[in-house]
Amino acid sequence: MADNTKDIYLAGGCFWGTEHYFKQIHGVTDTQVGYANGTTPNPTYQQVCTNTTHFAETVHIRYNPKVVSLRFLLQMYFKAIDPISVNQQGHDIGTQYRTGIYYTDPNDLPIIEEVYATEQAKYTQPLAVEKQPLENFYTAEQYHQDYLDKNPTGYCHLPKALFDFARHAHLNQD
Questions:
Q1: Whole-model pTM above 0.90?
Q2: Could you give the 3-state DSSP secondary structure of residue 78?
């Protein structure tokens, strides 16, 4: 990791749309889709889809904190998910589609907790978003990487307007 970048891992349902969404945000320098916090070494997509590996489809986001803050990225994350839905986002159902914030830097936890609490205040039921240290992350197969760039009309649970919103959101950053 270069000195001028940080990492956060976000699970927001199908990773195709989640990755494409975060790629639009000014200050995000790299994204990679994969599987986080599961129990099977080097899982395949087919294994993850069985609901037996305990992995979540997750996007590894590398960002420049001098350009975009973790707080802003997390605020954008909550705009792209249904935070009270358990093991489902859109029409995608299964444990691999659960939501989660997985961090590698313990110093990020106070910001995660703050944004989480702000979101929780909007709901009467508890948020279904995990917030945990990253235990493991396995990169998904190559055909999943940059999927919506390669397949612009491919399936996505996120509305296309959200991508445009993300592309222009840095103008309103804190």
A1: yes
A2: helix
With beta carbons less than 8 A apart as the criterion, state whether 106 and 63 touch.
no
Contact 162, 21 (CB under 8 A): yes
**What is the sign, positive or negative, of the torsion defined by CA atoms of 156, 169, 106, 109?**
negative
In angstroms, what CA-CA distances link 20 with 31, 79, 109? 9, 14, 25
Active-site position among 8, 10, 11, 14: 14
Tens digits of per-residue pLDDT, 26-82? 999 999 999 999 999 999 999 999 999 999 999 999 999 999 999 999 999 999 999
CA 32 to chain CA centroid, Å, is: 10
Q: What does the pLDDT read at residue 107?
A: 97
Does 14 participate in catalysis according to the annotation? yes
| 148 DSSP 8-state letter | H
Euclidean distance between CA atoms 69 and 79, whole angstroms:
16
pLDDT band at 169 (very low <50, low <70, confident <90, very high): confident
Judge whether 8 and 32 are in contact, CB under 8 Å. Answer: no
Return the DSSP state at 83: T
- DSSP codes, 40-66: SSS--HHHHTTT-S--EEEEEEEE-TT
DSSP state of 152: T
